[in-house]
Design a protein that fits this description.
Elements (H helix, E strand, L loop, with lengths): L7 H7 L4 H12 L5 E4 L3 H10 L1 H4 L4 E4 H4 L6 H10 L8 E4 L2 H9 L3 E4 L7 H11 L1
Parallel strand pairs: 1-2, 3-4
Helix pairs in contact: 1-3
């Protein structure tokens, strides 16, 4: 039996930044949208990841990290903290996440949400298709 201890440093080193994700965020910004991060990271790992990948974190207009606000997804309070902190209206926001329960929680608050589990190439077309239906 092998034992493995996941330290903040090991967790941070395991993170891979998606170039398609960065391209998607840059496209959103170019089109005039603001982009916010909402994450369930611990404080130590977040600081290491932020230091290791400034090219990603510099793109965000704001970030809410669960460790800093003592709440996490999919609990309603973390979504409310994001909305309140940045004075956002739920119906004007799009939440993209890879967990169904996080999508459902955002939608309960009136946030537009889309499940994303592959790459970022289809996200924009999924959002546009959703907007045409509604």
């Amino acid at each position: 039996l092998t034992q493995f201890i996941l330290t903040p440093e090991l967790f941070a080193d395991s993170m891979k930044v998606s170039q398609a994700g960065i391209t998607f965020i840059k496209r959103c910004k170019k089109e005039g949208h603001t982009v916010y991060g909402l994450s369930n990271w611990d404080a130590d790992s977040f600081e290491i990841i932020k230091k290791n990948h400034p090219e990603l974190f510099d793109l965000f207009d704001g970030i809410v990290v669960s460790a800093h606000v003592h709440a996490n997804k999919p609990h309603e309070s973390i979504y409310q903290i994001l909305l309140n902190t940045y004075q956002l209206e739920a119906h004007n926001c799009w939440f993209i996440d890879d967990q169904k329960e996080n999508i459902a929680a955002a939608q309960k608050l009136g946030i537009n949400a889309i499940l994303h589990q592959q790459d970022f190439h289809n996200v924009a077309s999924k959002i546009k298709a959703y907007q045409k239906i509604n």
